[in-house]
Specification:
- The protein folds into three domains: 170 residues, MoaB/Mog-like domain (Molybdenum Cofactor Biosythetic Enzyme, Chain A), CATH 3.40.980.10; 79 residues, 2-Layer Sandwich (Alpha-Beta Plaits); 153 residues, CinA-like (Maf protein, Alpha-Beta Complex).
- It has 16 helices and 17 strands.
- With 413 residues, it is an alpha/beta fold.
- The chain starts with a strand and ends with a helix.
- 41% of the residues lie in helices and 26% in strands.
- It is elongated and about 80 Å long.
């Protein structure tokens, strides 16, 4: 069972709008057992839309289309679909009534543009849109299903959830696709592939492994494909177990759980509190920790010690340490962690000091250098890392590295 996604809209191609629709549709279709093998993004131009439809025909069982169904002149998807399916637009009075009722509820005046949204290709099956005014449309041609939906994400999701997915589930039941995501940190992609060479060679033919890297984190996606869900679940569980045996020190979570979620669970489980002292990360670590609902139970606060005067006057870092070793040093970052732990009275504290860039590096401390220190009752752990030259990337990678060190410290207690 193969599926394609076609997204329509100039705004997607020039970067004004990020295409979140494809990611959501792809995930949902994959859960149904479809191989989503391609995504196309095209202009709001008749010839481009027609070309994408012609090119996709015969290559997939289902083609899902989003965008171009609005009430304005640049929304030309319906007219183009009429041309492709050799049909014409007609007024659907059920859709018209629904639009009129929605306009009354919102105290909007109905105009000709709104009425045009009730026009649909005569040969389509209308999919009611309970979240907006543009209906979805279901076509079938030469054994291929074409589904056109609005580009507005919550409207697309409504139509997919209420109409499309249930219908596809009834029609296509022969193939099962199961994914499991294993989150790793601590080895670059090339090194991880080297460590997993034997594991990959021994994978059963029904399974495959993909490497998905981002900001130092590498997600390992195990996929099993077949017709027997129970068998495939057992197969995936066995391979996950093998992964834990092969790279136990690199796995920190499953199913895309972030470091902040993992740390939050550990802190609640152990009844511990945490604080942060951040220089180069500028509050990013605290932001990540507090993005988790319920984090107030274990996170007390943060000091952003960007200037050295904050390090010395608020946290009690001795000036002579800064003069001798520099602000980006193990000696200073340890004192920062001690200071914030004492100030905020937490069980655990993490501190960072580094050079995010693009300026400020030296031969001994190049841009991308960071010192991290984590302190708790068990003691102090410090780590020096060197990343790249991009400032925003460095801040994100610094923060992830700090949370990983916190995780290790909690687990060691």
């Amino acid at each position: 069972m193969k599926a394609q996604i076609i997204t329509i809209g100039d705004e997607l191609l020039i970067g004004q709008t990020i295409d979140t629709n494809s990611a959501w549709i792809g995930a949902e279709m994959s859960r149904l057992g479809f191989d989503v093998w391609r995504k196309l993004s095209v202009h709001d131009k008749r010839e481009d839309i027609l070309e994408s439809l012609k090119e996709s025909s015969g290559k997939s069982d289902v083609i899902l289309i989003t965008g171009g169904l609005g009430p304005t002149s640049d929304d030309i998807t319906k007219q183009t679909l009429c041309e492709f399916f050799n049909t014409r637009l007609i007024v659907n009075y059920e859709v018209l009534s629904m639009i009129e009722e929605m306009m009354r509820r919102r105290n909007f005046t109905m105009n000709e543009n709104n009425r045009r949204q009730a026009e649909v290709p005569e040969s389509c099956r209308v999919l009611r849109n309970g979240a907006g005014t543009a209906p979805g449309m279901w076509f079938e041609k030469e054994g291929i299903i074409f589904i056109s939906m609005p580009g507005v994400p919550h409207e697309m999701k409504y139509i997919m959830t209420e109409h499309v997915l249930p219908e596809l589930r009834k029609r296509f039941t022969s193939q099962v696709i199961i994914h499991r995501n294993i989150m790793t940190y601590g080895a670059p992609e090339a090194r991880l592939a080297e460590l997993l060479k034997g594991f990959e060679v021994s994978l059963p033919e029904e399974t495959k492994l993909a490497y998905l890297p981002a900001a130092g984190i590498i997600k390992l996606r195990l996929t099993a494909t077949g017709s027997d869900r129970k068998f495939l679940n057992g197969l995936i569980n066995e391979q996950v177990s093998n992964l834990y045996k092969t790279i136990p020190d690199l796995i920190y979570a499953e199913n895309e759980e972030s470091f902040e979620i993992v740390i939050g669970k550990l802190l609640k489980e152990k009844g511990k509190t945490i604080s942060t002292c951040e220089s180069c990360t500028g509050g990013r670590i605290a932001e990540m920790i507090t993005s988790v609902p319920g984090s107030s139970k274990y996170f007390k606060g943060s000091v952003i010690a960007y200037d050295n005067s904050v390090k010395t006057e608020l946290l009690g870092v001795p000036q002579n340490l800064i003069d001798k070793y520099g602000a980006v040093s193990e000696q200073v970052v340890i004192k920062m962690a001690e200071g914030v732990r004492r100030l905020l009275k937490t069980d655990i504290a993490v501190a960072t000091s580094g050079i995010a860039g693009p300026d400020g590096g030296t031969d001994s401390k190049p841009v991308g250098t960071i010192w991290i220190s984590v302190i708790s009752e068990k003691g102090t752990t410090s780590e020096k890392l060197v990343f790249g030259s991009d400032r925003i990337t460095n801040i994100n990678r610094f923060s992830v590295a700090a949370l990983n060190l916190v995780r290790k410290q909690i687990l060691s207690e």
